[in-house]
Write a structure and sequence with these properties.
Elements (H helix, E strand, L loop, with lengths): L4 H4 L12 H9 L3 H22 L6 H19 L10
Length: 89
């Protein structure tokens, strides 16, 4: 089931270094809105993946933490519109 824009934007922004809600809403309303919505859905998936990796017990804790951090970082970049055409070069 598709998420509403409000649901897609319902995440903790405290740890995002470059969060700008106006920029995010403009991206949703712009010509790349469908792409940004897809990025936000991917970020939700990456969040779930990071949580699952954090709970694993079959790998080294430092590896687990680094892997989860990398997933969270990519999710953050997707949310901050970094991968939209022309946004960040």
């Amino acid at each position: 089931m598709p998420h509403s824009d409000e649901e897609l934007l319902d995440f903790d922004t405290d740890t995002l270094e470059d969060w700008d809600e106006d920029r995010a809403r403009a991206a949703l309303d712009g010509e790349d809105g469908a792409l940004y919505r897809n990025h936000l859905r991917m970020a939700l998936h990456l969040d779930r993946w990071a949580r699952a990796e954090s709970g694993r017990t079959d790998t080294d804790p430092r590896y687990r933490a680094g892997y989860a951090q990398a997933l969270e970082d990519v999710a953050a970049f997707l949310r901050q519109t970094y991968y939209l055409p022309g946004d960040r070069d």
